[in-house]
Design goal:
By secondary structure, this protein is mostly helical. About 60% of the residues lie in helices and about 5% in strands. It is built from 40 helices and 8 strands.
Length: about 900
Amino acid sequence: MAELVDGLPKPDEITSAEEFVAALRQLRAWSDLTYRQLARRAEAAGDVMPASTTATMLARSSLPRSEIVAAFVRACGLDEAATATWVTVRNTLATTATRPKGTASAPPDVPQPVPDGLAVPAMLPADIADFTGREEHVTPLCEYLAGVRRDGRQHHAAPIAAISGMGGVGKTTLAVHVAHRLAAAYPDGRLYVNLRGAEASPLRSGDVLARFLRALGVPSQVIPADETERAELYRTRLADRRVLLVLDNAATEEQVRPLLPGTATCAVLLTSRIRLTGIEGARRVDLDVFPPATAIRLLASVTADERVTAQHAQAAQIVGLCGGLPLAVRVAGARLAARPTWQLGHLAAMLGDERRRLDQLAAGDLAVRASLALSYQGLEPEVRRLFRLLSLFDLPDFPAWFTAVVLDATLERGVEHAEALVDAQLLTAAGTDVAGQQRYRFHDLVRLFARERASLEETGESLAGALTRGFGGWLAITERMAKHIPGPCYAAIGGPAPRPPMDWLQRSPSYTDAGRWFDAERAALLSLIRQTCVLGLDDVAFDLAGCMEKYFDVRGMYSDWADTNTEVMSVCRAAGNLLGEAVMLRGLIDVTTWTTDGPDGDAMSRLRDEAFRLLGMFTELRHEQGMCDAAVMCSWALTAIGDHPAAAAHASRALHLAKRSDHPGGRIRARLALSIVSYEQGRFAAAAGGLTGALDEARALGNPRWVATVLQFSGIAHRELDDFERSQRMLHESLGISRYYGDRYTEVLTLLALARLDLRRGGPDARTTAEAAVTLSREYNMSHHLAEALAVLGEIELAEDCPARAIGHLEESVAMWRTRGWHSMQAAALTSLGRAYAHTEPSAARRAFEEAAAIFTRLGDTARLAGLLPHLPTHDTD
């Protein structure tokens, strides 16, 4: 080709393997050729490039072989000069990829945190290249939503356009097309979501709000658990920003209302199968079927050859039998495009045969069903079977490998069949996700049709086998990825659910970055967990949920973690699955103890009660690794309430169980628990010494979260030994690891330790560090850390002789410690509060000192009690 055509990708602008494969996919779209057509072209040119090879190449993110690139580019229609350019770029990228990486680059399995702050989301699906018709709607919608035609009553409210119509009439196609045309008018972002209103379980508004907030740059840890608070934060983020919202496939007005912006600078475009008359002030558009002339234009565009023009009468017959329904016309055109030797009369005869249609394209869902049946019947038997089996799973979208698992076939064959479904308009290619995986999704009505066919054509044994393979495949991959996520050192406890063999997984380069993989699959995994709960598959449910815990932790998705474990635990309890119930309770205890406050009692008392209940469950199961994890929890709770002998006994028991059951993470946690007991007793040398072995084991385990944690507590212990240089070195190393992984929880505790170190040394940074800890604790709702951070800031004010400023911080700290229940911390904060009141309100000071003395007496802490005696009056002296 002498010149570049619009839409043709330019290889010389590509900088990575992922971009190269994405450009190949774009080149294939530009060529408008199916895989089989490309294979025939390659064969005619003397190249060997089966359709399965092409499908596999475009489903991965690694560089294909140079000879395959050359054959593919030639088959797409480019000349030899252009082909040589593509091959040169491929070879250059391959050479670059083999060079050693610099020491500053991140390891491949590191999940990168999303930066805080405002973001510009671009969530719209791709526009339809062959968009046809709707001229009477496109321009008015664009003008209305861009603010060109709006009356005075609407100037203070966001413009809302609601598109409604029957399934398959093109609501989403129109909405996405209009949204792309409006992109320049909304430079602050375009948000999109499929609300799945046609499914049995539409998306919950709260889940959509969380998704949109993350897209707008709000970290997961900051997103409120309460839906009303999420909506308020969402409207705040949209205030004074020009953002376009596309709410596709809405179920009800109730689902939509929380998602509407509160500012006129934004606009909303929503679609639904029903007219949402309850949405106040919405401009409504009711879509009808295409008139014959428009339907024929669409048929010609999809077919992409001269047959429609040459056989106009037969084309009119086809679109007439399709009832002018855009989805049906598009399916018919795809059939013709896939079979270039067919005469249009042949397809018209098939449509005219009532035995070949489920009904006569009458109206409503029946029209969609008939058109889909037409496409379905033309598929090869194994492709039809994949179509049926994929529909069994409640997935918003799915990666290419899932087709191979469901079909029990090779990856290449699964992808080839999936592409055949894409060609038949029965699946949609959803692009490449953040993990480099090619994804597919069902149209909601297509999924319903596929499930109907599955119930009619599959046996009960076949359906059960597909579900077992599918769920097992997700479980096998999720287990593999979870091993590479830093987080809690709990024992990995799985159930008996079968995992199918997937040898091809080891060869796939798309699964190297575990953090990005979980980012890509989070919605799919949550949907699958809910489905397994509904189906009563408790073993699969708790296994999948357990595999997500470390990801939830490191990403700060505490609400998702708590909600998921609560739902699965209930299912396991109902099924009598004690192991699953125990595993879910273990994670639930962790997330609710350290990141939330319960409705009654103090957090440490709740921890004690639930930890001992968990220990009893694992003991009944005789599961020693689980018993170890529970015993450590018991030790923490007992330390908090001051029962140090019992705390040490449980930590020692945990260490014994960890060694006997080969649980290295349990050994680390047990050693840390023993060190905390020693620290609380004032035996700082023992605390530091006990952590030396734990640090070595954490490094050997390869879990960065626990390397940072052990460094953190080691630094605290050495600070109390006045080994300030070593303390600072350990704390700074811990802080670097925490910030690298975006682990705010561990970061804040290290900041507190550094602030206390600087205060002890008389350094200049104590206040700045403590204030940073307060800010982060408030932002991420970490009440335990906030209580300590406020106490540290109060101590800094006292050291600077500013007792009046200290009082506010210390009063808040004491109030929070009452709900947390860590008694020594509460008594220490009360002591500081008494010192702050000493010169201004003697009676308040006395009350604080007396309460602190009572706690120290109960704890048996004679050293700190002795320090209070000068402040305790022998009689009332108001």
